[in-house]
Write a structure and sequence with these properties.
Enzyme class: oxidoreductase
Number of strands: 8
Main location: cytoplasm
Family: Belongs to the glycerol-1-phosphate dehydrogenase family.
Number of domains: 2
GO molecular function, one term: glycerol-1-phosphate dehydrogenase (NAD+) activity
Strand content: 5-15%
CATH class of the largest domain: Mainly Alpha
Catalytic activity: sn-glycerol 1-phosphate + NAD(+) = dihydroxyacetone phosphate + NADH + H(+); sn-glycerol 1-phosphate + NADP(+) = dihydroxyacetone phosphate + NADPH + H(+)
Largest sheet: 6 strands, parallel
Bound molecules: 1,4-dihydronicotinamide adenine dinucleotide, 1,3-dihydroxyacetonephosphate, zinc ion
CATH superfamily of the largest domain: Dehydroquinate synthase-like - alpha domain
Amino acid sequence: MIPPREENSKWMQLPRDIVIGHGVIREVKNVCDDLKLGNNPLIVTGTHTKNIAGDIVYDILADAGVDPSVITVESATAEGVRRVEEVALYNNSNYLLGVGSGKSIDVAKLAATELDLPFISVPTAASHDGIVSSRASIHDGKRVTSVEANAPMAVIADTEVIANAPYRLLAAGCADIISNYTAVSDWELAYRLRNEPFSEYAAALSRMTAKIVLDSVDSIKPELESSVRIVVKALVSSGVAMSIAASSRPASGSEHMFSHALDMVAPKPALHGEQCGVGTIMMMYLHGGDWERIRNGLKKLHAPTTAAELGIEDKYILEALLLAHTIRPERYTILGSGLTPEAAERVAKITKVIE
Ligand SMILES: NC(=O)C1=CN([C@@H]2O[C@H](COP(=O)(O)OP(=O)(O)OC[C@H]3O[C@@H](n4cnc5c(N)ncnc54)[C@H](O)[C@@H]3O)[C@@H](O)[C@H]2O)C=CC1
Ligand SMILES: O=C(CO)COP(=O)(O)O
Ligand SMILES: [Zn+2]
């Protein structure tokens, strides 16, 4: 992990190899060779994604004379991370591969960080920018904690595999990127009002990435590798913005706090990116920005824009709006010291999130 820095020095941790394209999962051995990794990896995968990509990675490495071990994880919990660490220590693993969606990647990323081992991210879906970032989200009962971790040494994003994932995951990835708009506005606000450290480069990159995705909504379609390519490049670029900032600030503001709050209060939360997208509509309204443009873009992507489309009752949306500012009190946003119940209802109704 990056050691604490003096005020005027900066340490940006970025992936070294990023491989994107049709069939690039077959490059996994070449990537490991390029990084001079050892011969004893642990593949961390999901029960479902094992069949989709975990087994392919295993076979490629085994056929090349490498001796991989495999562990499947169901959820991103501290217990899951501990289990992976135990297996890695038992097997003397010298690097970890996270093969799957957000949960498998986060568990592998955090276990690798704690064991001080290299980590490679092999996403099977482009559902959020955690596939590239230096953060991991760990679920503990009703709470989700976002912790600092090492960035992946490499990202291998096979557009063929990702194009075959349910389209809903890709739309969620787009929404996670579009949320950069309000995240950056919140960051600017904190810079102006609180003199919070701010990076022009990270903010500009993050906003430009959101613009590219929002401008591309008409060409993002199910099962198209060209669409996956647009989204994966945006997720990488958003991850790089977070690396430049050495914080998730460029990609996580009030809309993410709303999503994290929803994870805590909703009986059955929706996908991370979907919730952030709906949060972005409402936070953009609070910023006085063009929330209808965000809403229209999400609609074109067939991403949820309402509580009903998220599958969450209106009352939980309101509860999450009232709770959101407490999620990360040190991160100043447009939510300030919190909304009143009346203001929460107004923003949700005006933006058509609730009826
Ligand atoms: N590290 C970070 O910076 C971030 C982490 N997160 C965390 O990531 C997790 C959510 O990740 P998601 O990817 O949204 O959801 P997820 O990991 O729950 O996966 C959603 C579903 O998609 C399935 N799936 C994945 N690839 C597939 C494929 N190719 N074909 C068929 N099914 C496939 C999985 O089996 C799973 O059932 C949460 O734990 C969240 O807190 C969210 C945002 C950022
Ligand atoms: O989801 C993220 C960026 O899209 C990471 O943000 P958090 O720091 O809120 O976990
Ligand atoms: Zn996110």
